[in-house]
C-alpha cells in the first residue's frame, strides 16, 4: 500500500512539475503540456481517493466477519451446555474480540488520518520544491 502511495505521489509530483513549469523563453501557453498535467493529476487524485476508500473499509469488513463467526461459534458451542458453562464460554469469546487495523511493521496503525496526512505532506513538499526551483532559475 505504501508503494502504491509512493508511486501515486511520484506521478503527482511529475504532473505538478509539468503544470508549474514556467520558461521565460515561451510567451504562449503550451496546451499539450497543460492537458497532460491535468490528466496526470486527475488520475493520481482519483487513484489515491479510491485506495483510501478501499483501505478504510478493511477494518469494518473484518469486524463484521468476526462478529458473524462469533455468532456461529456461540451457536454451535452453546447448543447442549449448562447455563453456567454457557455464560463462561460467552465471556471468554467476548474477551477475545479485538479490532483489526492495518499496520506498518506493527509500529504505526494505518488509518485514513495517517494516509491523508502523508499525502498532504508529500503534496506540500512537492509545491515547496517547485517554488524553490523557480526562485533558483530566476536568480540565474
Automatic annotation (TrEMBL):
The chain crosses the membrane at residues 37-58, 114-132. It comes from the Eukaryota. The keyword Transmembrane applies. Keywords: Membrane, Transmembrane, Transmembrane helix. This is Gustatory receptor. It comes from Araneus ventricosus.
Amino acid at each position: 500500500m505504501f508503494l502504491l502511495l509512493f508511486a501515486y505521489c511520484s506521478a503527482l509530483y511529475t504532473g505538478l512539475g509539468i503544470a508549474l513549469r514556467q520558461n521565460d523563453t515561451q510567451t504562449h501557453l503550451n496546451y499539450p503540456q497543460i492537458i497532460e498535467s491535468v490528466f496526470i493529476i486527475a488520475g493520481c487524485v482519483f487513484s489515491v481517493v479510491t485506495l483510501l476508500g478501499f483501505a478504510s473499509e478493511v477494518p469494518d469488513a473484518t469486524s463484521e466477519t468476526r462478529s458473524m463467526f462469533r455468532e456461529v461459534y456461540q451457536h454451535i458451542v452453546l447448543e447442549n451446555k449448562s447455563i453456567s458453562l454457557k455464560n463462561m464460554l460467552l465471556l471468554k469469546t467476548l474477551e477475545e474480540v479485538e479490532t483489526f487495523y492495518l499496520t506498518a511493521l506493527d509500529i504505526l496503525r494505518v488509518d485514513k488520518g495517517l494516509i491523508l496526512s502523508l499525502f498532504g505532506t508529500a503534496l506540500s513538499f512537492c509545491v515547496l520544491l517547485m517554488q524553490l526551483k523557480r526562485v533558483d532559475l530566476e536568480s540565474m
